[in-house]
Amino acid sequence: MRLRIIEVDRPDTLAAGAPPAMAPPVPPSAGAPLCSVPGTPTPAEASAPQLWAGVHLPGFDSAEKLEQLASRAQRFTPRVSLVPPDGLLLEVKGSLQLFAGVAGLRRELRGECLGFHVQPVLAFAPTPLAALAVARAGRSFAVMDAAQLTGQLAPLPLTVLRWPEETLARLARIGARTIGAVLRLPRSGFARRFGSAHLAMLDALTGHAPDVRVAFHARECFQRRRELSCELSNHVLLRAALAPLFADLGVFLTARQCGVVELECHLIHRHAAVTRCVLPLAAVSADAQRLAALFGERLAAVQLPEPVRACELHAQVLLPHLPASHSLWQPGEHGGDMEQEAGGLIERLRARLGPEAVQGLALRAEHRPEYAWAATRAPLAAAPRRAAAGNADTRGPQLRPLWILPQPRQLMVQHGLPRCRGALRLVSEPERIETGWWDGGEIARDYYIAIDIHGVRLWVFRERATPHGWFLHGVFG
Fold it and tell me: Which of 204, 279, 283, 445 could form a disulfide with 263 if both were Cys (CB 3.0 to 4.6 A apart)?
């Protein structure tokens, strides 16, 4: 009689064909099966028990609607997570009593999904990935006991995990097409051939490793509408009609410790198109009275096509806001802060003259002086301070004049030196700027600081190419 010795569950060997039989109970190690020994407490069992609802939305591919559905689902539990493009996860252990158990919660969740014209598949399991996998498989059941989780997951196809097609094809070639078949493979061999990330996903699926999900937080914005009792065309009466909306805005911002940098009001007419009135701010603000006053200035410059029958106030972007502490000194004396005064002036000018009438200046990464700046929206109050800190060293060749001419003006030359209302005296070393050959705007210049006969400091340059002309390019303050 011949004896055949068969080696079972070697760490470096994956079975070919049918999955191998379960190995004897041993502690999880390099050669142990992917599922742990029955009776060993898992981290999920050792901690507080959880129950997750997996919501699969077949054919759902709208990110915006998924967020809207997640916002509606927060009435069941604050722990809602997105699984784009067609899934939601809800931790509902503490909500079962509020909704008459799993059956009541399933009915309410289904009703919310039907409101978005989609037929959901709902499943409940102790781990989030398991609940979602069961829902993706089209099975609408609930697994309440973590000890039964592995057995319920075993017959599910691997496609519910949404692994890459290449990985699924390689597993299929060794006969592993279900979750149970993969769980019976040696851990070390599986990790070596298919990656540790897939192994970690299996541990999270069965509850042997924590599965931390990022909670969904709905983007907050302010929107209020007021229907007017009569149609109004008088701007003073419109400001009075908008006062309750600004009062609501102040309460809304204070409760959230937020502020706004832009407000938009829609004035709705009976026949004409909606009149949009936008108020940009120079700094984050949460003062409702100040916002109402500024908006009144902006509204006075708006021409109404016909009387207004309703008003809507919008604040789409909310920013963290901490009220600034006031200086002991008045602005302008003993180092008193002028920042708030400057921001208020910018906002008043914008409100009266329009957003495009007040602009700021921004630096560009460009060596050619005429292209080194650009007009932008007036910056926030804190922006000039940051820009000044980044360009604090203005000595030497980096010194630039406040006024740059739109086009350099050619100067007269006498004895090789430039003249402008008389002879100019050069008081600096040359700063050579030679750049722009790649875009057709090549320059090659030597810049100097010069002083004319009246003591005015000028910025002049001499072309390096013949005929070596002199040009005036800027004036210092």
Answer: 279
DSSP 299-315: HHTPPPSS-EEEEEEEE
Distance CA 228, CA 269 (A): 11
Q: What is the number of other CB atoms lying within 10 angstroms of the CB of residue 127?
A: 27
User: pTM to 2 decimals?
Assistant: 0.48
> Residues 316-372: pLDDT tens digits?
888 888 766 666 666 555 555 555 556 666 677 776 777 777 777 777 878 888 878
> b/e per residue, 414-451, with b = 16+ CB within 10 A?
eeeebebeeebeeeeeebebeeeeeeeeebebbbbbbe
When pLDDT is averaged across residues 274-292 and rounded to a whole number, the result is 88
Closest CA to 231 of 191, 257, 268, 201: 268
* Gap between the Cα atoms of 25 and 37, Å rounded: 6
What whole-number distance in Å separates Cα of residue 108 and Cα of residue 75? Answer: 10
Distance CA 355, CA 349 (A): 8
Residues sharing a CB contact under 8 Å with residue 41, sequence separation 6 or more, in sequence order: none
**Would you say 58 and 121 are in contact if contact means Cβ atoms under 8 Å apart?**
yes
> What domains are there in the chain, each with its CATH number?
43-206 (3.30.70.270), 222-320 (3.30.1490.100), 359-385 (no CATH), 401-475 (no CATH)
In contact, 177 and 171? CB cutoff 8 Å: yes
The two counts, helices (H) then strands (E), for the chain are 13, 19
Which tokens sit at 84?
A: 């784009």
The C-alpha atoms of residue 147 and residue 125 are separated, in whole angstroms, by 11
